[in-house]
Design goal:
Number of strands: 11
CATH topology of the largest domain: Isopropylmalate Dehydrogenase
Shape: globular
Radius of gyration: 21 Å
Number of helices: 12
């Protein structure tokens, strides 16, 4: 049975909603380990608990995680590093979690910058967006690294020979700044026909590509825009139905299942958390504003990562691409 550590003190709605999310997750085939202060978790029954005397506020500087070794985030990452837990979940400060995961848990071989990878809903089922907020500014070679990790993650999720796109302000090769222009050429060399070039924000949800590569600033803006648009659609439908006549309400009742599926698809809580790819352990970043349902889904994401042996599979896929010398498809004779 997997052991998953949960940072009870991380997030805008901690500790109450984080604890409720753990309680909702009683059906998981994993043992949850709650990490938090005595005031927050000492009264909670039915869970293994690790008491800490400190926690990181949401506006903390990323490097503080390395100095505050009694914080709930540091303790959780240290447990993961020591293999005492199989995964760690936190809705805390993204920068601190990235810094901690990188320096405490450690990077995978050949990975320069770990990145947040989110499988967002699309017409093809999902599209992997990375980086979704961990690295605000990056170099061209790091975008190439993100493409490699995204391709490997897509393979883990069952997408063979995933199609790659580079997020930009236009499809033309000449678009973008010097970083994206340089990355365009390098990703094209590496992935050949699997690289479809530049893609725009509206392509993320169409399923045109399987992986969208971006720096963390633009990736996070794209993700938050999608979440806002989804909320607007759902709120508008709800508002208009309340104002509609009897026949429209009957029609809505007949389409209840369709609306329920749409709500689940568009609800950002449904994908719960994002893996920090590129570190030697399963670290899941939950949304800072996560409620109990988002935390439950983040824990499910972590359990899935453990079950599929995500780290080992990622290492294998990255090694395969590097050794084959051809990210455009399987090596000759395979």
């Amino acid at each position: 049975m997997a052991r998953i550590a949960l940072d009870v003190m991380g997030g805008d709605k901690a500790p109450e909603e984080i604890i409720e999310g753990a309680i909702l997750s009683s059906d998981l085939n994993s043992q949850l380990v709650l990490i938090g202060t005595e005031d927050a978790i000492s009264h909670i029954k039915g869970f293994e608990k690790i008491l800490t005397s400190d926690f990181l506020p949401m506006d903390v500087k990323p490097t503080e995680v390395l100095k505050r070794k009694k914080s709930s985030m540091y303790v959780g990452l240290q447990l993961l590093s020591e293999k005492k837990v199989d995964a760690f979940v936190s809705a805390g400060n993204t920068g601190a979690l990235l810094a901690g995961a990188t320096l405490i848990v450690g990077r995978m071989k050949g990975v320069d910058r770990p990145a947040l990878a989110v499988p967002v809903p699309s017409l093809s089922g999902f599209t992997i967006l990375l980086d979704a907020g961990a690295n605000a500014r990056v170099r061209a070679e790091q975008l190439v690294n993100f493409a490699l990790m995204g391709s490997a993650y897509a393979e883990v999720l069952g997408r063979k020979n995933a199609l790659i796109g580079l997020l930009n302000v236009g499809e033309e090769e000449t678009k973008g700044d010097e970083v994206t222009k340089e990355a365009y050429g390098e990703i094209k060399k590496l992935f050949k026909d699997r690289f479809l070039g530049n893609v725009e924000g509206h392509d993320v949800n169409t399923g045109r590509v399987d992986v969208v590569v971006s720096d963390g600033f633009c990736g996070n803006v794209a993700m938050k825009t999608m979440e806002g648009t989804a909320k607007m659609i759902l709120d508008t439908l709800k508002s208009e139905l309340k104002k509609s006549g009897i026949f429209q309400k009957i029609g809505a009742l007949l389409m209840k299942k369709v609306f329920s599926k749409l709500k689940k698809l568009l609800d950002p809580r449904s994908y719960g958390g994002a893996f920090i790819l590129g570190v030697n352990g399963i670290v899941v970043k939950a949304h800072g504003s996560s409620d109990r349902y988002a935390i439950k889904n983040a824990l499910q994401v972590a359990e899935k990562g453990v079950r599929m042996k995500l780290v080992d599979m990622m290492l294998g896929e990255l090694e395969h691409v590097r050794n084959s010398g051809n990210a455009g498809g399987p090596p000759e004779g395979s």
